[in-house]
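Quick review question:
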């Protein structure tokens, strides 16, 4: 194993145990694999048992320890069982990445629809997925961190939290709530259970995943009109690659960010920084 360069050891996650929810999605998968490459044991959690086990096997094939946890982030009893599996296997949890979330087609307005056409049930489902889908795992798994007095929680927000986009009101509103919750938790957990517990978020820009592929990309693979507008508004001139998220998450998970909590880090190619002119 190559010697770690001076100053880089603080980013080494060897001996840490991490959990990634939504691990079989495009972004969650890249994050889980990235944490494993940095030495962490990684529990991968998602609803499909076949997909989670396949990902865990791939991580183990790369030399890191991994366990597959098939459950729904909105089902507390399932999460409690998952916590028991982690406790039995590793005895501790150091990092929680909440990558589960997304939008629903039924909650996305067509170009012709308006506020008055919003499906409130679909809107509610999106808010629950993105907000309670992070809070519920935090309630269940952060108890292990509270007992140890240390740990890092990383929530996955979105640039839509601060830059509302047309057609996806529920998604943006839920991510804005998640950022507020991130800051509240950062204060609450540090004051009540010690400064060794940190809570931060990253706010990805535009990354192609199954949930938004139809909005950003044409069936043939070229950018849609909306995708072209996004790239035109992005100073770096491209959509994000899931690997672009690994570095920021590893930084927030590691000792390299020991004095960082309550932060929301944009990973958006400059989208949020550009004023449009």
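Suggested answer, residue by residue:
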């Amino acid at each position: 194993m190559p010697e770690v360069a001076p100053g880089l050891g603080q980013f080494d996650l060897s001996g840490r145990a991490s959990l990634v929810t939504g691990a079989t999605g495009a972004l969650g998968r890249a994050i889980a694999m990235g944490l494993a490459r940095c030495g962490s044991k990684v529990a991968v959690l998602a609803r499909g048992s076949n997909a989670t086990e396949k990902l865990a096997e791939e991580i183990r094939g790369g030399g890191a320890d991994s366990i597959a946890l098939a459950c729904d982030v909105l089902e507390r009893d399932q999460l409690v069982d998952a916590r028991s599996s982690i406790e039995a296997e590793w005895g501790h949890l150091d990092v929680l990445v909440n990558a589960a979330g997304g939008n629903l087609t039924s909650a996305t307005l067509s170009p012709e629809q308006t506020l008055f056409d919003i499906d409130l049930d679909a809107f509610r489902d999106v808010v629950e997925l993105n907000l309670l889908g992070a809070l519920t795992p935090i309630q269940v798994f952060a108890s292990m961190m509270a007992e140890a007095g240390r740990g890092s929680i990383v929530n996955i927000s979105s640039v839509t939290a601060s830059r509302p986009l047309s057609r996806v009101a529920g998604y943006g509103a839920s991510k804005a709530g998640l950022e507020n919750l991130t800051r509240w938790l950062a204060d609450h957990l540090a004051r009540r259970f010690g400064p060794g517990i940190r809570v931060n978020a990253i706010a990805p820009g535009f990354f192609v995943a199954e949930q938004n592929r139809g909005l950003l990309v044409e069936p043939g693979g070229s950018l849609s009109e909306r995708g072209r507008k996004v790239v035109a508004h992005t100073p770096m001139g491209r959509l994000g690659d899931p690997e672009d998220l690994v570095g920021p998450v590893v930084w927030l998970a590691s000792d390299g960010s020991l004095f960082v909590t309550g932060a929301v880090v944009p990973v958006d190619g400059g989208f949020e920084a550009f004023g449009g002119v």
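Why it works: The chain has a mean pLDDT of 94. The two ends are 49 Å apart (CA to CA).
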